[in-house]
Design a protein that fits this description.
The protein has about 110 residues and is of the alpha+beta class. The protein has a single domain, classed as 2-Layer Sandwich (Alpha-Beta Plaits), CATH 3.30.70. About 20% of the residues lie in helices and about 10% in strands. The chain has a two-stranded antiparallel ribbon. A two-stranded antiparallel ribbon has the order 2-3. It is globular. The two termini are about 25 Å apart. About 35% of the residues are buried. Bound molecules: FE3-S4 cluster (2 copies). The site of one FE3-S4 cluster has 14 residues, from loops. One FE3-S4 cluster (F3S) binds next to α1. Its cofactor is [4Fe-4S] cluster; [3Fe-4S] cluster. Ferredoxins are iron-sulfur proteins that transfer electrons in a wide variety of metabolic reactions.
């Protein structure tokens, strides 16, 4: 799967969402998240991100490797106020903006970069 890491936080360009043929890039509050089971590894999203937040999982820079599991956690853990995101929603457009983040993203400070 492809993964969205720290550079997306508070930027949310959303150019990636337009490119994704399976609509598997979901919006939290401060960042977007790629669904690891819905992503077909087409790679179309990666070059359009202006802040280079997107990488294939094995190419995620070491300082951001926590984001690999964290993208999955967004879907596999029950988030406060967003129970409907658990599992495989099958399309970001139909789900809409979720409006909450994982703990890693919600508490992220860009000074850690
Ligand atoms: Fe974020 Fe880049 Fe997409 S900033 S919303 S990952 S285009
Ligand atoms: Fe979509 Fe990017 Fe995966 S365009 S299918 S999230 S590689």
């Amino acid at each position: 799967t492809y993964v969205i890491a720290a550079p997306c936080i508070d930027v949310l360009d959303r150019g990636c969402v337009e490119e994704c043929p399976v609509d598997c890039i979901y919006e939290g509050a401060r960042s977007l998240y790629i669904h690891p089971d819905e992503c077909i590894d087409c790679g179309a999203c990666e070059p359009v991100c202006p802040v280079e937040a997107i990488s294939y999982e094995s190419d995620v820079p070491a300082r951001w490797e926590d984001f690999i599991d964290d993208n999955a956690r967004f879907f596999h853990r029950r988030l406060p106020g967003a129970a409907e995101v658990v599992g495989s929603p099958g399309g970001s457009a139909k789900l809409g903006r979720v409006g909450v983040d994982t703990e890693l993203v919600g508490g992220y400070s860009h000074s850690n970069r």
